[in-house]
Amino acid sequence: MIARHETQLDKIDIWSALAAPLPAGVISWRQDGRTITRDGRHVARFVAYIEANTVRERLDSVVPGEWDLTLELLPAVAGLDDDANQGACSFKARLQILGVIREDVGTGKDYKQAATDAFKRAAVRFGIAHELYSYEQNWVQMDGDGKFARPLEDPAVAYARRYGRPRAVPGSAVQSTARASQTAEVAAVPEFPEPRLDTVRTTDEPSCPKCGGRVWDNRLTKRNPKAPDFKCRDRSCDGVIWPPKGEKTSEKTDAAKSDGAEPAVPEPEEIPF
Hints:
Blueprint: H1 2-18, E1 28-31, E2 36-38, E3 41-49, H2 52-62, E4 67-73, E5 89-97, E6 100-108, H3 111-124, E7 138-142, H4 155-163, H5 173-183, E8 215-217, E9 230-232, E10 240-241, H6 251-258
Antiparallel strand pairs: 1-3, 2-3, 3-7, 4-5, 5-6, 8-9, 9-10
């Protein structure tokens, strides 16, 4: 009984180590969606991400030789639309750690992109890098609206300035130190990431029909009227809310088209991982 109890505690420590916050240096930002122009300003949304190699390093450091990844190429689905954040290729990743199996599906424009996306999504099921899903939307001003437009500010700096957070990820040692100095208390580095921020929503915002979490409102930015109006913020969840039957576009989009105006860009205060 003692040996079995010790083994169970060891596994709890392993799961905690896998889900521990990632170092700030491995967090990157990429543009998500097209650039929007409003009142002479060009802005684009950026999302935080990590490389697949970062996931591999976490697995090798915590459970060396005790994990296995299997990738299965899924058949192409007719009618996939890039505007709906769907890719041309899809893989199903089957990640096994100490006999525990988690699966998820990733998409991409080619095999490499789809395979790495599936790998990272399956790793999130074990808690690896799940703190990124608590990040809020990060709109950054661009130097133009063309294909090669560049951000005028480092997205990491823009995010920290807007939300008053250091450049470290939530729950990291850097953020814990900053919080301790502000409250004049001695705080230790937390063992677990901070609670998800997507549990707080406005009164008129719908919930994800699958997981009950917060959703992205795509009604003003989607170019395809058949694309979902809302999509779950959790990248490991595929919950979406489709436009009402008989309506090709939302009322807000129709109003914007009728007067010839571009969709309004949310101000930083209006923008809520």
